[in-house]
Amino acid sequence: MSILTIFSKYYAYFLRGTRTTIVVALITVLLGSALGCLISLMRLSRVKSLSAFSKLYITVIRGTPLLVQLYIVYHQLSFIRYPDVTIWGADMQRVMPCIIALSLNSAAYVAEIIRAGIQAVDIGQTEAARSCGMTSGQAMRFIILPQAVKNILPAIGNEFVTMVKETSIIQYLGVADLMYNNGIVVTSTYNPLPCYYISALIYLALNIVLGKGLNIFEVRLKKSER
Amino acid sequence: MNGNDKQVLFDIRGLHKSFGALEVLKGIDETIRKGDVTVIIGPSGSGKSTFIRCLNLLEQPTAGTIVFEGEDITAKGFDVNRHRQKVGMVFQQFNLFNNLNVLDNVTISLRQVKKLPEAQAKEKALALLTRVGLADKAESFPSQLSGGQKQRIAIVRAMAMEPDVMLFDEPTSALDPEMVGEVLQVIRDLADDGITMVVVTHEMGFARKVGSRVLFMDDGMIVEQGTPEEIFERPQNPRTKEFLSKVLNVI
Question: Is residue A121's pLDDT more than 60?
Fold first, then answer.
């Protein structure tokens, strides 16, 4: 069977899986970014215990496999009663632990990206802002962050793309994402290779769209400065 | 006579500053009065910049006291941000805000710190920019300006806050030689207006003509001080003599 025949016969599986993958990736990226901002602020904080905690957090997350984190979150948080709702075909009771694990993971990387972006802004900018009487918060908001965003954006786009791909591991918790549905089709056709090609193309398409979106954002940001 | 009746702005006693094991300032006692143009000269690494940065607490002194307008700025719980509104700072590397255009560079702290209405801040900024001949650059970004233009705008940015004293940390050291004059002229105009200032510089001609007092620093201490005449015509300390002979007779 060729790719086309398999796709025309089983496209519903692939599309249903893609839908779940998109939902999980989207929520993860948003949640992970928000959490990452928080962790990076803690990392840069002058309060010793906060920065020590975020340092430890980042070390642990970066030093352990995502799959292990996924299982730990799933079992550790099994007492939580997740809401019994369905978002665009994704059953939250199943998907929530995955989103939590992926977001916790993504947050560590996002935090490091943000920290690096902020620290790459010349210290003279902070000194000048503070010398004008701005508080550290004002200096951050009006002077440092607007400049840091330009360092952060390309790297964070990379992290988003990685996250979309990494969602593929949630099949191990039985979430019906793209790879899970891919498995179903493989079993019913006994013809794995075309199935994987189809899935690869779908992931690629998702990431190309994501990349283009981030590009547009970046260009608009650059324009606002010249 | 020597103007000792003028109001004291900075009263600095036993000022020490160390970075780890490195002691940069080794006990500075100095009084800066209203209307003074205090010029600090001395070799590289003598602590000039660290000294001036202690005055607006960009560096926290390790020991000693700095009293500004009767208030100990090294005391615990002192409001640093309020102090810095009264002390303008101009840096060697200009440090204009790269994400803001010239007008916003000048008005941002007026709007956000002094809470001036936008129109009023803009009017004030344009008046000052006109004074330094850069009103036509109001919409430009720092990356589009020459070093001399950047530094003149940095001076305007500090002056806009109407500080009681201006600190200049080697304001012309990063400039191409042909741009030094335009910046020094602006500083000189401010001095002629009676603005109190402390200037760290390697421009001996400027120190001589504009300074009302000259401090010679070496190895973390003020080795010698006096009027420009005293320092440049009749230096007493051998280290002052050696330094001046090196910088005044380059070839």
Answer: yes
